[in-house]
Every structure is written in C-alpha cells, then in structure tokens.
C-alpha cells in the first residue's frame, strides 16, 4: 500500500511524501501488517520496544517473528492477536485488547524470553475500491504499570494484614486484661482520676461512686494517711511501690464510718509515649480476714500457752507440741501470704494445638524459675504433666472451649537434681478465640497453693495433738476447740480468697470509648463488641446481686415458725405477679383445702411460692397460655405443697442439675439461675425437701415437703 501510495504521489508533479519514512518516525508503537499477516512496516519506537531490527522482521510472517513463549504453554498470545485481527476484519472496526501477555525473545540469548504486557488495537485499512489492503497494529507496553499496580496491591494487602494482626493482638490483650483475677484500677494525671475500674476493685467499695473522680475526692479519708505520700512519690519518681498487710482505714460505703482494713497492694507508674509518668496502675487485695484470723490464732495460742504453764510435766509436753503446731501454722501462713498476696496473679497464654507458650508473665515464670518456657510446647517445657490430669484438661479446654477450674490440683514436678517435688495449684484454663471465633489457644490464670495445702496438713496434725491434750485437761478442752475452729477459719478464709476468677470483667470500656474516634464508634463491629461487653457487665452485676441474696439465706438463722394461712399467701403472690399474669394471660388454680394452714415462716413460704409460680409463667410454652395449679396434701408426716405448670418442661439430665446455683436451661428470658437454688436452701434449712417431675413440651410439677 505504501509503495502504491508513493507511486501515486510521484505521478503528481511537485509532490513527494515519503510515507514509509513517515510511518517509521511515529512516536507510537506501530506495526503495518498485510492481509496475510506479513510485516510491511514498523515504527522505530516499535522496533526499540520489541528489541528487534527492521531487517529481521520486514517481509516475514508476523507469528514467525514473534513466537509464543514455550515456557508458558498455558498462554497463547499469538492466537489472541490472530483472533483480534479476524474480529477487526469481520466488523470493519478497530478491535482492542486491554491487557495481553506477549513475551519477547531476549537478544543474543536463544530460547530465553522477557516478560511483557501490552495494550493493543488492530485496525483494518481499506482502499478506494473498499478492498482490505493492510491492518494497522498499534500497541503499548504496560508492563511497568501492571507491576506498579501489583506492588501497590501487594503493599495494601500487607498493610491490611498488619492491621488485622495488630487488631488481633489488641483483642487478645483486651481479653487477657478482662479476665485478670485481681482488683485493679487506672488513675490518670497528678490528681489521680479514676479512669478504669474493674469489678473486683469496685467490689471493695460497693457503695461509692469512683469512676472519673480524683482518688482523694472519691475516698477523702485517704488524704491524711500514708498512701497519700506513697502515691505522690510513685508519680514523682516512677518507681513501683509494694505494700504488704498495710492498715488503711477506709469506708466501704459513702457516709459510713471507716473500717480498719488491711491491704496488699502494688502501685505502678504508667508512662506516656514520651516516657513521662501520666498515671498509676493499682493492684489491690483486701487481706483483712486473713490478718484478723492469723492474729486471732496468735492470741489464742498465747492464751493456751499461759494456761498450760501450771500443768507441770504433762502440760509442758503438750504445750511444746502446741507451740510447734502454732509456729508451723504461722510459718505456712506467712509463706502463703507472700505467695498469692504479694504480687498479681500468674498468667500465661498457650497457642495452637501443641499448646506453645506464647506469653508468660513474671509471676508465672517465677513458678518455674529453672525452666525455659517461651516458644516451647507445654509438654517440652513441663514433661512431667503428660500423664497428669492437668494436661488432659488443657486438651479438653482447647478442643471444646469449656472453661475448667481446679481449686487444689496435685502436680508433681522435677527439681534440678531430678527428684520429684509435690506441688499443688489452683488454676483456671480458658479457651482463647481468634477473630474468626475459632479456638486458637488457652489462657491460664494460676496460683500455687502448695504452702496452703502443707499448712492445712500441719494444722490437721496439730488438731490431733490438741485432741489428745483435751482428753487429759478438761479446763483446756474448750480453748483447744476454739483454736481448732480459728485454724479452720484461717484455712477457709485463705481458700476463699482464691475464688477470684472473674469472667466478663468491666475493665477498659471507659478508656476504650475515650480512645476510639466517632467513626470507629459508629462501625457495626465496634457497636456489637461494646454491646456484648456491656451486656456481660449487666449480667455480672445481676449475678453479684443474686449472690448477696444467697449469702443472706446461708448466714441468717432459721426464722421462727408461725401459723400461716396458705390461701392468703397465694393471693399475695398473685397480686405481686399481677403484671406478669396479665401479660401472659395466665391462670392460677388452687386446691389447698387439705392443709389450709401451715407452721412455717410466712416470709419464706411467700418466697417459695413466688419463685415457683413466676418460673411457671416465665417459662411458659409458646403455643399455649400458662395454666398453673397450687395444691396441698399430707404424706408420711409431711405437708406436701405442689405447684404444677404446663410450660416448656425439662429433660431428665436437666432435672438433675435444676437446683444448682446459676444453672439455667432457657436463655430466651431474663434470669440469673438462683431462684430455685434459694428455694431449695430455704426448704432444706427448715428440715424439708423439694422434688421435681417434668416432661419436655408437657410441663413441670414441683413438690415441696414441709415438716408438720
């Protein structure tokens, strides 16, 4: 075509346009192809980009010059180009290929290819007779653009992965702090403003407002005490302060007199990004009961020693044994106090199915000072536990997600010299979940109680010696009984202090709300997480309230019996439940003619009927209206009060656990799971019993047996 065009121009006098040269100097990557795909011409820019010479390609078939890369058999760019040309010719329109990989041969290196990506168009050219004379092939090397985009995409993916990992670590640390079994608070600024208070700390002062108040405004009685200067010194120097059995009089309730309370506490400075002190972290434990019990033991021991001075030879022998027992108990109590009262709880995180130590805090590491733990599977770090129950429970927690708690687990460990050492632990094993809500590890809160167990054993041995002394000396008998009781109280108190594994703790919510931006707070995931945390806090508060009621039932003496008219109590309960009865359109039928009166505490009978009737209404069947019947009969020396409902019913396995504290089987309605536990306690404290018969989908009958 170029030659014919040139000839035509030559036939016109005064005009001479070199069309071939005009093509060659174009800045674009242009290739001119004949209808039979022979190369007719190429721009210099095209030759430079494809690393070929004009002599190498002119007059040759296109795909003979530019062959497919044999190393990428899955890719056939020549077939793609051929198909594009055929579409262009068929439609008489330009055909475009946005992206095509077409590798070019490396100059001077036969068989080697250079990766290239192109954006290509094929345009058919027709002459005045409408006959196809050539195809204009224009292309652009977009390899660098694609690489840049790929690198940008890879960078973004890495950034997103890093952000996801950072968020995962944040959530893990948040869960860790949420389950810390110590009372703690975060104070901010030189005035020590309460910014974060966990539930355990708030329980120390159940009747006082503290959050967002300066420490000495929330607890003004502390201003004139030693803790004021201690906190000022920690804030000034940044040095941690540890207090042990410090007497700090303070009022638990607003406006009430101060109480003498003994504390074990740690004040630790908080630093900002510049390393400057900007607050104080408090770990605190109320050890008043522990100290008072020990002081009582010491006082009683001194009294017993004075009394025994006049009993000559036998008294001297018994006194020596008693003094030895008291000294051993005192030594054990001090060691026990230093173990779990002098520092925060031991915490570790085990990751993956092999339970590899991912995190070990100093308190936990101190349990095994001669062991290397971090980065090792637990069976490699502590091979002795492979056959112990503790490893079995680790596996169960990881595989099922169920939290496991042990109060006094015996685990023998090897010393450096290879001898086995008997050790006892109290611990909680709790599953850790990743962002996909899958179990990826186990969190452990542990306290070694070896000293406590040994102390109890020593106390038990001491009790045997004291019992022998009681047989010979009637005067000393009562005193020795008191000593034994005090020692029992001491052990019970120490054990009770261990029952502090707190789940779903209200800890960093306030700080989190301050740190998060409004955009973050508006995110659905953030709202959902905050809602879950606040729901857990609400349920925990309800549980604490229920525990208070239970404590009252367990501690109060049995009320005096009185003659109660049962029908009157039933009517009063119906009035109390009036709103629930109306909402559910419930109906209560009574048949109590056989025992119209009953010798029992009216208050306790009302509590029993209220719990049983309210449960019958609350757990009603969704397909029918609640129908309840209260009846009474006599059976084998008992008055039997029955409450029958037509509600959801229970399976036999559920009935066996029905009266367990905090046990619930239906979560679609509000409740704490303590009502039936309280009923059982009331009835059993009065010498009676309660039984249940139930069938799924039919209903439940409670039978309460009262002594006549």
List the helices and strands and how they pair.
Blueprint: H1 2-10, H2 19-24, E1 29-33, E2 39-42, H3 44-50, H4 54-57, H5 62-65, H6 77-91, E3 95-101, E4 104-105, E5 113-114, E6 117-126, E7 132-141, H7 143-178, E8 183-188, E9 193-197, H8 199-204, H9 215-218, H10 226-237, E10 241-247, E11 262-271, E12 277-286, H11 288-308, H12 312-340, E13 346-351, E14 356-360, H13 362-365, H14 378-381, H15 389-400, E15 404-414, E16 420-433, E17 439-448, H16 450-472, H17 474-497, H18 509-515, H19 518-521, H20 524-555, E18 562-565, H21 566-576, H22 578-584, E19 587-591, E20 597-600, H23 602-618, E21 627-635, E22 638-645, H24 652-656, H25 675-685, E23 689-695, E24 699-707
Parallel strand pairs: 19-21
Antiparallel strand pairs: 1-2, 1-7, 3-6, 4-5, 6-7, 8-9, 8-12, 10-11, 11-12, 13-14, 13-17, 15-16, 16-17, 18-20, 21-22, 22-24, 23-24
